[in-house]
Design goal:
By secondary structure, the protein is an alpha+beta fold. It has nine helices and seven strands, in the order ααααββββαβαβαβαα. Bound molecules: zinc ion (ZN).
Length: 232
């Protein structure tokens, strides 16, 4: 390793060399080794200290700002952007290929917490994941784990909707997947237009959900039923 460079530069060079994209919503777990995260948190702490200094915040004397740079660094790596740095959650699949296999629709409601990649403001909402069961099934909690792994990055809601659909298709081998997200964006409520009740809705429909209006209607009817129990 070139010791004149910090680790984040070394990893960026490696990704650039491979033509690997590392946008805010991309997973880069393949480029990290086990002990890298602690070093990267330390590098990010120094960088956040510089940001606070530039914002003219007295982090030496203000007791509330003393540990803020490190808290921010840890929060980015371990929480709000955690889905970039760890591999996909393990979603063990169970066979669904017997004669009495489940052939119906499954709709799972997953709470989502994300962050917009434009302003790094919180995004909070719910995803409804619809699927027509294929030859294998995954545990119900896995849908939410996968959705949360996609959401814990810098995202755009449109992209997030696509990412969740793609990863669910990958984990289940089903071609028939739909994702509907309803979320409130900190960049609309905390800043900018400061509209406190603004909700954004996005939908991605694949396979039968796109081609068959009955399947699509069943999905949205299910969402309405779920919303009667857990409105938002
Ligand atoms: Zn934003």
């Amino acid at each position: 390793m070139d010791t004149s460079k910090n680790l984040s530069q070394v990893i960026r060079d490696r990704m650039n060399g491979d033509g690997k994209r590392f946008w805010a919503g991309d997973n880069i777990a393949d480029y990290l080794e086990e002990d890298d995260k602690e070093i990267l948190i330390q590098e990010a702490t120094v960088a956040f200290e510089q940001v606070l200094d530039t914002l003219l915040i007295d982090r030496e004397n203000d007791p509330n700002s003393k540990g803020t740079a490190r808290r921010l660094a840890k929060m980015y790596y371990n929480e709000i952007m955690a889905g970039r740095y760890v591999p996909a959650p393990d979603a063990t699949a169970f066979p669904n290929d017997s004669t009495d296999r489940y052939e119906g629709m499954l709709v799972v409601r997953s709470e989502l917490r994300s962050m917009c990649s434009h302003h790094h403001q919180p995004v909070s909402g719910v995803a409804y994941i619809g699927i027509i069961a294929a030859q294998k099934l995954i545990g119900l909690s896995k849908y939410t784990r996968i959705a949360q792994w996609c959401a814990r990055r810098g995202t755009l809601q449109e992209e997030l909707c696509n990412d969740i659909a793609r990863e669910i298709m990958k984990a289940t081998d089903s071609e028939n997947v739909a994702v509907y997200i309803q979320a409130e964006h900190g960049c609309c409520t905390n800043r900018g237009i400061m509209a406190h009740s603004s909700l954004t809705q996005t939908t991605v429909l694949k396979g039968a959900f796109k081609d068959d209006s009955g399947t699509k209607k069943e999905f949205f009817d299910n969402i309405k039923l779920q919303q009667e129990f857990a409105p938002r």
